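new request in #modeling-help
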Amino acid sequence: MTQEDLFKKIVSHCKEYGFIFQSSELYDGLSAVYDYGQNGVELKNNIKEYWWKAMVQLNEEVVGLDSAIFMHPTIWKASGHVDAFNDPLIDNKDSKKRYRADVLIEDHIEKFNDKINKEVEKARKRFGDAFNEEQFRSTNQRVLDYQAKMDAVKARFVKALEDNDLDGIRQIIIDEGIVCPISGTKNWTEVRQFNLMFDTKLGSVAEGANTIYLRPETAQGIFVNYLNVQKTGRMKIPFGIAQIGKAFRNEIVARQFIFRMREFEQMEMQYFVKPGTELDWFEKWREKRLKWHKALGMGDNKYRWHKHDKLAHYANAAYDIEFDFPFGFKEIEGIHSRTNFDLSQHQQFSGKKIQYFDNEANEGYTPYVVETSIGLDRMFLSVISSAYCEEQVGDETRVVLRIPAPLAPVKVAVLPLVKKDGLPELAEKIMNRLKLNLNCQYEEKDSIGKRYRRQDAIGTPFCITVDHQSAEDGTVTLRHRDTMEQERVSIDDIERIVTEKCDIKNLLRQLM
Ligand code: ATP
């Protein structure tokens, strides 16, 4: 199965099993906006819980916040979003398709990397155990040529971005012979800037009303509450503020399912530190965040670091964590050292002093900020796409979602073997005991085999079958999702066994 086919299957599986629906589907849909269904919302909530507890509960110096989506419009002037939250767009005149010019170039650069990796893999096969990858990369002429070409395009691209040189960006597309994936032609328009913020009107009448923006990131809600939280929480630097919430961006090219949406959710944490210590904290948070991802056990090789070649003018370090999605390695989380840019801007635009007074050093300063910013929907997509698995069982194909047990939407399904002989009543009794602690599902329709498959397809780690023996000796069959193994266990032990495997503590413990 190609990666493209796999991705298509994941998208339709998400719909068929109540994870994700196209928004407004009844009215033919709204592009790049999605609704989470009965299983999707559970998985999403579990991801949030994992992030929140890892941030706020495990770090005593990190506290939470839930700020409003609507904010004073000057905030977006101060943050730079009104003037500079733009993407460079370009149209292909033949296909009439619109693209982000920077993404076209980034994808082109990535192709050099693919070519280099292919050479490395070919050589690895040829040389076997004697293969020295480092030496090969630094001496093989073909690899060196690709690398040189890639570096040259990258350098031009960074310079054009830094100079905000839209003609320069277009020229790279022309010179590199980048074609439209739809029409296959190089018939490109000029490159133009496009602001990504949605605006609306505050007030009952449009006339005289204020234009306000739907926030394009949650971070500014944290910056403008820095003083409130610091003072009322009597927080000492270093400390962090964490928030989960919706953000809105009028993305030019919104494809790839929930990877790029116009309405999405972010989980962000701003960590306020003493100036001069920010790069140490930056490294610590990089390490912590990668550990958080890896603890899910989806495979360490699925993550890689991407260092920003072009830093925003206020940042002094920035890395992304990229995940190996079915459509390649793409950003899932950003970790940025943002200096004191945001707080200084808000100090200037609001005219209010935003400072921290360090009693020990007897000095005041504007704190520096290290932020970690992850897209909840992209995280969701990473979990679903690495969990999706088709395997041959006898002569049928089993589709199973190997979702890490603590994140699974349903933890245990309770299934009476037949709909008579008091089995449903006993099953319901078990269900009532378990549901105080665990999200359970009761199912009595269809054969037990079909019911197992349905639970596999939504990633339920355990199924319990209540049969005639259960009424006699108080035991049930416990079936494990991943191995399909079945064992006989006492009804009294179920809660302990399931909780042991599904507890979010299993993930959190790995972060200590
Ligand atoms: P990209 O380069 O992919 O547009 P970005 O660098 O603009 O992303 P940030 O502004 O750093 O993204 O936002 C932080 C995180 O929010 C990203 O790592 C991503 O996970 C998530 N995110 C950003 N834009 C979207 C979107 N349109 N849909 C879903 N998630 C998004």
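bot summary: The first helix runs from residue 3 to 16.
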